[in-house]
Amino acid sequence: MKKKWFLFSMAIIALLAIYFGLYYKNKELKYIPDSADAVVLIDVKNFSRKYLFETLTHPSAWFKDNKKKDKISWRDAGIKIPDFVQLFHLKNESFYNWNTVLEIKNKEEFLLFLKKNGFKNKRDK
C-alpha cells in the first residue's frame, strides 16, 4: 500500500511540475508605457510547448546534425525571458521602431553575447 501511495504522490508532483513549467503563465503586463499605441505579446511558453511536441512526435529529427553557425542561443544571453515578450510601438514614431523591455540577469554575460553577435559599443569608437 505504501508503494502505491508513493507512486501516486510522485505522479502528482510530476504533473504539477509539468503544469508550472509549460502552462502556468505570468500575465502581468508591466513596462508598457502609456504612450504605446500598439502592443504585441509573444507567448514564449506556447512556443516551448509546440517545440517540445514537435520534437517528441518526430524522432527522425533527434539525431540530425545541428551544427549550424547562424543559431543564436538566448539561454546564454544573460537575460531573463518572461512568459510573454511584450513588444510595443510608441505614438508619433516611425512604423519600423518597436521596443521591448527585458530583465538582465548577468550584465557581463549579456555584453559578451552582444559582442559575439556583432553588436558594437558606441563608446568604444
Description:
- The chain is α+β, with helices and mostly antiparallel strands and 125 residues long.
- The chain contains 3 helices and 5 strands, in the order αβαββββα.
- A hairpin with an 8-residue loop joins strand 3 and strand 4.
- A 3-stranded antiparallel sheet has the order 1-3-4. It has a two-stranded antiparallel ribbon with strand order 2-5.
- The relative contact order is 0.15.
- 36% of the residues lie in helices and 17% in strands.
- The N and C termini lie far apart (72 Å).
Order of helices and strands: HEHEEEEH
Spatial order of the strands forming the largest sheet: 1-3-4
- Which class of secondary structure composition applies to the elements? alpha+beta
The poorly predicted ranges are none
Number of strands: 5
Mean pLDDT: 82
Based on CA inertia axes, which overall geometry fits?
extended
What share of the residues does DSSP label as strand, in percent? 15-25%
Largest sheet: 3 strands, antiparallel
N-end to C-end Cα span: 72 Å
DSSP summary: helix tally: 3
User: Whole-number radius of gyration?
Assistant: 20 Å
Q: What helical percentage do the residues reach?
A: 25-40%
Q: TL;DR of this structure?
A:
By secondary structure, this protein is an alpha+beta fold. It has three helices and five strands; from the N terminus they run H-E-H-E-E-E-E-H. It has helices at 2-22, 44-57, 107-116; strands at 36-43, 79-80, 84-90, 99-100, 103-104.
Blueprint of the fold:
Layout: H1 2-22, E1 36-43, H2 44-57, E2 79-80, E3 84-90, E4 99-100, E5 103-104, H3 107-116
